[in-house]
């Protein structure tokens, strides 16, 4: 069996009674932005499944997003339901089914069982509760919560019900103990249980793995194994007796002097005198063992001298060993656990990226041997990149603070091509999109490096708004957008702004001709020779942005240049800044030519004066000059500068140089007047709103 889902009602930031999270068999990696509910989901699991944890809640464990009228009507209650489902190929007579037999809600295969934790005010207190709250005359909801805390919280009860909670059948504690729930929270002190045999964790593990080569020898039956272990204990006892005898010989004279005081104090009476005796068992010497780290050089140091990250890894390995011990029927008999669960909150604590990746790989490879299910919460893109899409569950809080749960593996439906593409390219940098509150997808490095600066020029801060800018390296938006389209099941409903180019194209009217990119001012100039399209980007049609229309229901919008004026990002940059030399970086070829053209533009000179400054080399310049003369629009000079700028840059180098120039300018008191292209401004405003 496995935990297939949890439903959390009115616990912490889980509002209402329909907060359902579905789980996979094996590894479940829960991600999301801060305060999305990841840790609280693990705490909810702990309340239901951890027999040893406290079941009492504080007043702040209730979800407080309720009205005064709702509080007056009925006392608040927390309810958490965990559902178990039958695994594939599970034996119908398995211990799993026996354990959950009294919790079943579905008898037919695949069976289902439920455990429900409730924290509630008993019915007999309800009348007094309503009377006390009715007498409060305040519009401050906190006053009502304070009244509940001081007058009723101590009267609240907790129960764990098995099966349908309406029947209020309390789950039997013996079967609950069959669940081994191990929780490593984010703020953990591994030294408490780690370093010496005096500590419970290390002591238990040592005892289980003592004589493991005999216990694990499949060529011997249980009786043979036990006899050999008993013989080793006898031999140890003989050697230990020799040690005790050696101590007694060394103490013989001193003992008589030391105990002579017994006669003086009256401790010796009735012919009885104090003496020393003793024996040592192997289990008693565990406390003498300490954990060390031995290097290949032969140097050994105590584990207490390790870094926190290294000791966290050692602690996790020992915990997995303990879970193996607790699940051993040979060792514990009927007290053995049958359903081990490992829960790790933020495993990246104190671990550098390579170690994070290795840890997750180890957990995935050893899941079936050590734990039946693993639940991990993380803020680490490195950990997220180390697991498959099917293992990732994404929490996202919508604008009304309700929970949206995305299941990355299921979001693609039957589109295995897109799923494989995203799985391949969702590395530690692109994984950042899964943690952000909003996303800007761009086609190239220049947009990626400069988007945060563009936002600052418009008075926005992408980092403060938790907006992630992701460069997808071309027009591969559709693959990624399948993760976010709110019209489909299992997706993550966060805002996604796609910034894309609006390249116009044309093709010759001859057989087998193909569309090729052209300049905006060339559109429809030679219809007898060419067939034109004002753009070749289906994304613009599928997710159109309309500046005049507010579309709050859409969570994906596409932003591009103005029809008939747009081409590429670099083209738009120069078109909107025809006299801004800030964009003329050192790596640009034809730098002097562009500087002279911009000066001429600023002086208000006509197009023909600008054309005289343009070189004639190459195949593009004659084409630009010839076709810009045919263009009758009032913005012909802007198009000329944009064309020359586009054909003069080296995109990689220009991206970095432009970012440096824009940042320096932003910090100056009398900075250069730089204009962010309108479509980029629209994207920033929308995604940050």
From TrEMBL:
Gene3D superfamilies: P-loop containing nucleotide triphosphate hydrolases (3.40.50.300). It holds the Pfam family OLD-like_TOPRIM. Residues 1-383 form the Endonuclease GajA/Old nuclease/RecF-like AAA domain. Coiled coil: none annotated. CDD domains: ABC_ATPase, TOPRIM_OLD. Residues 434-503 form the OLD protein-like TOPRIM domain. InterPro entries: AAA_GajA/Old/RecF-like, Bact_Antivir_Def_Nuclease, P-loop_NTPase, TOPRIM_OLD. This is AAA family ATPase. It comes from Paenibacillus chibensis.
